[in-house]
Design goal:
- This protein has about 450 residues and is α/β, with parallel strands linked by helices.
- It has 16 helices and 14 strands.
- It folds into 2 domains: about 375 residues, TIM Barrel, CATH 3.20.20; about 55 residues, no CATH class.
- Helix 6 links the parallel strand 7 and strand 8.
- Keywords: Carbohydrate metabolism, Cytoplasm, Isomerase, Magnesium, Metal-binding, Xylose metabolism.
Amino acid sequence: MGNILSGETEFFKGIGQIQYEGPQSDNPLAFRWYDENLVVAGKTLKDHFRFACAYWHSFCGTGADPFGGPSHFFPWDKKSDPVERAKDKMDAAFEFITKMNLPYYCFHDVDLVDYGNDVLENERRLQALVDYAKKKQAESGVKLLWGTSNLFSNPRYMNGASTNPDFHVLTHAGAQVKAALDATIALDGENYVFWGGREGYMTLLNTDMKREQEHFARFLHTAKDYARKNGFKGNFFIEPKPCEPTKHQYDYDAATVIGFLRQYDLLDDFKLNLEVNHATLAGHTFQHEMQVAADAGLLGSMDANRGDYQNGWDTDQFPNNVGELTECMLVFLEAGGLKGGGVNFDAKIRRNSTDMEDLFYAHIGGMDTFARALIIADNVLQKSDYKKFRQDRYASFDAGKGKAFEEGKLTLEDLRAFAIENGEPATRSGKQEYLENLLNRYL
């Protein structure tokens, strides 16, 4: 991949191509673990992860929070014309993405270019950036992992988008999704994500929950039918989140979303895009959410970040906990990886990380953490008795009456008879401490 195209401004000056230098390197602008060509469990690391840069946090996030304004001031954010300003931002984005050697990027529509309240003008602006992005992708080899639409920031969506009680608002959501789908298709995007940021409620006192969820499902069917009609062959993803900004969102967690997809006949086209910090907010580990999705064959894609266990909101920090991520990679490998998606860094540098190189440090650390965790997880699966222990723990269902039960061949009377005949079962340890120690040995 090339870095700077002829005639363009270099925004990240003094930073060259980020290379793999190995675990012994002390270079903070080099990979220590992420060797994209390293083969683990039959695939290169590049193919396992399909890493993507999240356009919104990396190039639109200003460091602002509920208690203070922007602390990040970007050199690409100076022109007054929204399209020209957006092109500068895209120049910076592709410079960063190629210097990081990231194979993919992903975006919301309003990340690419600022939107107003005029549907036709918004579509004109987006089309201008799509045309520009086509050239960028062709010149760099970077691909679009997925597109999506921001249906939560504009004040019109304060009561939801597709679940809004006002049909007029829903039509604006439809117009926005149509344009975002058109953009994704035009850019050969491999997937499309729906995150229902305000698809939920603040109080049931003013909410017809059944009707809103039916509207949500109808909207998804309508969008899916449009995309298929226009040649989109990729996956649609739903991204679970329990709350924030609403009190309760209809895509609460993986299990809730799977039930929703099954109830409304969407399983053939939709999978899950899971986020680590959203699992935390739902009261789950990310391992749990991955296992739920994997067991249903719906582990589609991943937003890589972490939360702060002392804060009750979505802090979107870059991942850096090797131990926790190794447990996730055990699920990842045993599930056969992601179904169509990739790993995007839906994470933002901290408010007080104000130097241009901080964005590089963040992504290098995240990619290294994933690579190291996957290598460790593969060693655990290949070299330890981790898998055998779990198999042995359920061995009573592999033959005899246990197997007959799994096959649906036993009645409740049969279970009672077996209990009487065999008396009190032996106590069997779950060996939790042993397994925790086993994992730590490989870390």
